[in-house]
Amino acid sequence: MTMPSVIADYQKKVISAQLKKFVSTINQAIDLAKAENGDYEYWNVAQKSNTKNSQIFRDYLVPKLKINLSACENIDFDSHYANTRTTSFYFKAKKENCIGVLNDSAIIFDIADIYEENFIYTAFMVDVNGIKPPNRGAKDMFAFAVWLKADCDDRSCDMVVGQYHGITKGETGLIISGKYPPIMNGTRYNHCLKAALPSYCGIVLLDNNWEFPKNYPWNKL
């Protein structure tokens, strides 16, 4: 095994552990928010318009997190994220959409709140190891959404607008981008494993307990 391979394998193990911790942290925050405010249907989010920030996340989950909201002011985003390719085609890591930094250095960014007749979700990006490299989508940066409502039929559930590529009717809670990608050559994995498209790698990580499998396209992302 070459030295670059050894370094990459170590990096993947570290990032996997950080990703698992983040998922656990956000799920705990969701549970606390629901304990205080009731289930999603009781959260005060009805009759609102789509936003370019994750206001639902800010209103309901930030108060349940150990997060430094002023830390974004001290990050040189132009330097650390100059060549970032993420899981969201329209996302850019910058000070204006930085929500804050968790106590383990993970950085959380706005993406959007989406309010439609049949579904509501708040979407956000996380860089699980903070400003450390590689700062690339599906390597250490991952898009998630907390779904509050998915009252759609089979077709509209499968055609949700955005980077989340489908939802199961009635499904709510934390969902990683690319959990339901389209089928390619008989499997939902190939958009990530074969085409190396970062927005479709969520299902691969989710189905591997948030670990990077041996055939993960690490060097192509």
Description:
The radius of gyration is 17 Å and the shape is globular. It has helices at 3-37, 55-61, 77-80, 154-158, 190-193, 202-207, and strands at residues 67-68, 98-102, 107-115, 119-127, 141-150, 173-176. Helix content is 28%, strand content 18%. The chain is built from 6 helices and 6 strands. Strands 1-2-3-4-5-6 form a 6-stranded antiparallel sheet. The protein is of the alpha+beta class. A hairpin with a 4-residue loop joins strand 2 and strand 3.
Q: Percent range for helical residues?
A: 25-40%
Point out poorly predicted stretches: none
- Written as H for each helix and E for each strand, in order along the chain, the element string is HHEHEEEEHEHH
- Shape descriptor reads globular
Strand content: 15-25%
In short:
With 221 residues, the chain is of the alpha+beta class. Helices cover 28% and strands 18% of the residues.
